[in-house]
Hints:
32% of the residues lie in helices and 24% in strands. It is α+β, with helices and mostly antiparallel strands. It has a 5-stranded mixed sheet. Strands 3, 4, 7, 8 and 9 form a 5-stranded antiparallel sheet that branches.
Amino acid sequence: SPLLAVARFFVDIQPPGAKELVVGLFGTADKLAFQVLIVVVALAIGAMVGRVAARKPDVAAAVIAVFVGAGFLASLREPAASGALAAAAAAVEAAVGIAILRRLVGLATGAPAPGSRARQSVTAASGGMPDWRRRSLLQAGGAIAVGSFFVGAIGRYLLEGQRTPTAQEGGLPTAPKPADLPPGTDIATADLTAAGLTPIVVPNDGFYRIDTAFVVPTVDRESWTLKVTGLVDREITLTYDQLVALPIVEQYVTIACVSNEVGGNLVGNAKWTGVALRDVLSMAGVQSSADQLVGHSVDGFTAGMPVEWVMDESRTPMIAVAMNGEPLPRAHGYPARLIVPGLYGYVSATKWLAELELTRFDTFQAFWVPRGWAQKAPILTQSRIDVPRQGARMPAGKVAVAGVAWAPDRGVSGVEVRIDGGNWQPARVSPAISKATWVQWLYAWDATPGSHTIEVRATDGTGEVQTDEQTPPAPDGARGHHTIGVAIT
């Protein structure tokens, strides 16, 4: 698809700050918004080409050929691209585009077309009759537009419709000691859940997704391999079956996107099942000169993290093959992805994992680093108010204020709430699954009539209090207290 190839090209060359702006405006709909923008720009250019074509048809045809060529070259940058298929598609696109352009220009200018001479003469001789030429142009143009939309929709449906195997088909590995939620972990009542308090474990279909893939890669598990290369004693290649033959581990981990604004929802907690990353690295033997581990995706994306962080025995980085007891959904990295507690996703959570490369920070920069984001990015201590919502109107009396707080992998030791800039009051905090996961919190507020502001802050497991200093997400995460306004009647 030239549309997707060009979209990916512009993502790859985006200037610093572009990701923050686009995600801030559109959130998880950023890819759709970008593709719509490309289509709108293409339509505007097409309109100009159409005006030129009436006078200089060869120039217009050359412009179409240039744009098709640009799409062809962009598609060749995709790691999984087929040069022969891309060339054939480009040839068809150019031929069809130029033919359609000439047909529409002929209708617009009254140029003869097969079977149209008699009708044109009747129209010219009868001044009171409808302008059949304009009607034909609108009908043909409308048919082409509708047809193009449906052809594109069918192609996208076929791409997106490729499914992930079920647990039965996929032979889902199980951990010898399954991770279970401690009693009382979820403090949400039915009323709080209905009001919008986020569950401790976010379902797969509700989990946030931020990545650079415009179409989710489809990976054949049977032919998939994982390579370990770079500064290692011996390079190795593992098949899926060889990978899951290693000891299986299971843990709950909260992951977050660095683009998440204060109070945003680009964060989630899930149960991940897979293989300890250190077990795989030990098979290759990490050399002492390596200080960066780079995860390579099948679509060319890279994320680099400190080797020191990965090797720290206090946490369990993993190659996950299952999410919440199911095979990884395609959108979340099937058949394998990295989960590294405590690091933002852009420097760790490589989806559709294909290679682990041991290298150095001074010789290699992963995908987002040249685009203005920090090389090393631990997840900051954050908290969020889920209930009540911003601008809510409620009766006076007892009001439940609740939300989530996270500081992986330091843990959350406390959450406090402040009303109208007064004293900080402790909230009830749910038992933590581990230091790598978020917690829910709940505060009972005696609300009085009037307009009020509600503010929240968390304290992590080291005793450090969440800062009130406001910073944007770039370059290493947003800071500040989540604050909302409500009206009590």
